[in-house]
Predict the structure.
Amino acid sequence: MTGSDTRAKLLTAAQDALRDDGIAALSARSIAARAGVNQALVFYHFNSVGELVETACRRACDDSVLFYREQFAAVGSLAELLEVGRELHERERGLGNVAMMAQLMAGAQRDDVLASAARYAMSTWNAEIESVVRRVLVGSAFADIADPAGLARAISAGFIGLELYDGIDRLGAQQALDALQRLGVLVEVMDDLGPVASRALRARVRRTSRAGRATHA
Amino acid sequence: MTGSDTRAKLLTAAQDALRDDGIAALSARSIAARAGVNQALVFYHFNSVGELVETACRRACDDSVLFYREQFAAVGSLAELLEVGRELHERERGLGNVAMMAQLMAGAQRDDVLASAARYAMSTWNAEIESVVRRVLVGSAFADIADPAGLARAISAGFIGLELYDGIDRLGAQQALDALQRLGVLVEVMDDLGPVASRALRARVRRTSRAGRATHA
DNA sequence: GTCTATACACCGATAGAC
DNA sequence: GTCTATCGGTGTATAGAC
């Protein structure tokens, strides 16, 4: 090895610190203490605390997306998507990558380095989710009205908020996910209508949508 | 007056600082500088920075909910709810109460005082939104499958995430809201089906829902 | 109620021994 | 590559003059 595992220890320590203590309590000293190494090594291996956090978040994001990729690939329906979403949330409660991203975004408001890391993480997740949404929508009755890119962003952002909310009210977050899952069943059923009803619905949606847009504009 | 307006100035300064600079950059000095008063006054009027922030957030939350109350009262359909949601988001971009709450929740992970303020804010919003959702669902085809309390929590948490996301990607957040609004139109149309189709849908939903729950449990 | 001055802890970051 | 020691800066919080 070119170097010891200090670098790696700092990266995971940064991740843990961000998840457990939040962006407000983050410092080179707290991260180093968590990693069991000297504080000065933060600046040797990375140039600043910000860059360490950035690197850690990018890596965690890539790992996380890679981990869920095959589960996402197996998703063929909205119900399955919601089920994967539930499992993801359950797993994330322990692993905390999404919570880490939430802290990253909170800190990104005034820190350009963190902001770029946050943008990278969100766009990575968005791309992944968008492809799943697109696939689920193929042949659907409302494929032409739904916007996969926008929905993917809504889902990503929604999860960020949900994970933050989970941190202060676990039961409430659970309740929210349950409600969404139930609503998902509804849409699923709708999409499962016969071809005649489906066509009628499609026409109607198009009409109402245009009207709504016109009113709005 | 028993005292000058220093107290009030500190409260709004805390609000602004939390919104603009985030929880990570928050300090008695930065807040006092923003308010144009001496740093020591933070500890005279409030006992600590945490208590100042707590008070500011509770007040801002109450004000904000009160402000939107009449708009919420006028909501009679899902489309209108989504429209109010859009206006709220537009207004919040400038005023920043939701962004403030997002920062509050980010800081609440390890701070009990902030956590209690965050819980207060969220439950206040949840109660308000829940009553609107409940009203919108009255007489709806899927009134018996939707859970107003859960949906209200999902909406609140979702907005938190969306506002954080807006801070790093304005266009993406816009796109997400557009997609949701379009999806809202869909549900609206669905709910507008004839009584026969509506009854069939309801029965089907109940059946599928039970199956899904059973599989899940 | 508001100010100055000050205590003490922690922060990021660097220099230099090993 | 890792450590100790240290700098200047900022944080919370308090004491005391006004």
Observations:
- Residues 51-216 of chain A form a domain with the Tetracycline Repressor; domain 2 fold (CATH 1.10.357).
